[in-house]
Predict the structure.
Amino acid sequence: MLWDAWALLSIIALCTAVILWSCWGFYSDNRSESPSSLRLPLIGGGYLDVPHPSGHPTGRHRSRSRR
Protein backbone atom coordinates (compact mmCIF):
# COMPACT_ATOMS: atom_id res chain seq x y z
CA MET A 1 0.00 0.00 0.00
CA LEU A 2 2.86 2.38 0.74
CA TRP A 3 4.26 1.94 -2.78
CA ASP A 4 0.87 2.75 -4.31
CA ALA A 5 0.63 5.97 -2.31
CA TRP A 6 4.09 7.11 -3.48
CA ALA A 7 3.21 6.30 -7.08
CA LEU A 8 -0.02 8.29 -6.85
CA LEU A 9 1.75 11.24 -5.24
CA SER A 10 4.46 11.24 -7.92
CA ILE A 11 1.86 11.18 -10.71
CA ILE A 12 0.00 14.09 -9.10
CA ALA A 13 3.27 16.03 -8.68
CA LEU A 14 4.22 15.40 -12.31
CA CYS A 15 0.83 16.53 -13.62
CA THR A 16 0.95 19.64 -11.42
CA ALA A 17 4.44 20.48 -12.65
CA VAL A 18 3.40 20.14 -16.31
CA ILE A 19 0.32 22.32 -15.77
CA LEU A 20 2.33 25.02 -13.98
CA TRP A 21 5.08 24.91 -16.62
CA SER A 22 2.59 25.32 -19.47
CA CYS A 23 0.77 28.15 -17.65
CA TRP A 24 4.07 29.96 -17.15
CA GLY A 25 4.91 29.50 -20.84
CA PHE A 26 1.57 30.93 -21.97
CA TYR A 27 1.94 33.82 -19.51
CA SER A 28 5.44 34.70 -20.68
CA ASP A 29 4.43 34.43 -24.37
CA ASN A 30 1.51 36.80 -23.83
CA ARG A 31 3.75 39.33 -22.11
CA SER A 32 6.62 39.16 -24.58
CA GLU A 33 8.05 42.37 -26.02
CA SER A 34 7.62 41.25 -29.63
CA PRO A 35 4.09 39.91 -30.14
CA SER A 36 4.57 39.89 -33.93
CA SER A 37 6.78 36.79 -33.72
CA LEU A 38 6.83 33.40 -32.03
CA ARG A 39 9.90 32.86 -29.82
CA LEU A 40 11.06 29.25 -29.61
CA PRO A 41 13.82 28.27 -27.16
CA LEU A 42 16.72 26.32 -28.68
CA ILE A 43 18.43 23.37 -26.97
CA GLY A 44 21.90 24.92 -27.24
CA GLY A 45 20.69 28.22 -25.77
CA GLY A 46 19.15 31.28 -27.35
CA TYR A 47 15.89 31.65 -29.20
CA LEU A 48 14.50 31.28 -32.70
CA ASP A 49 12.04 34.03 -33.68
CA VAL A 50 9.42 32.97 -36.23
CA PRO A 51 7.33 35.88 -37.58
CA HIS A 52 3.54 35.56 -37.59
CA PRO A 53 1.99 35.79 -41.05
CA SER A 54 0.27 39.12 -41.57
CA GLY A 55 -3.51 39.04 -41.82
CA HIS A 56 -3.78 35.77 -39.92
CA PRO A 57 -5.74 36.02 -36.64
CA THR A 58 -3.96 34.71 -33.56
CA GLY A 59 -5.42 32.61 -30.78
CA ARG A 60 -8.09 29.95 -30.84
CA HIS A 61 -10.66 30.47 -33.53
CA ARG A 62 -12.95 28.50 -35.77
CA SER A 63 -13.22 29.01 -39.46
CA ARG A 64 -16.43 30.55 -40.64
CA SER A 65 -18.82 28.09 -42.22
CA ARG A 66 -19.79 28.84 -45.79
CA ARG A 67 -23.45 28.54 -46.67
Q: What stands out?
A: Strands lie at 37-41, 47-51. Helices lie at 2-30.
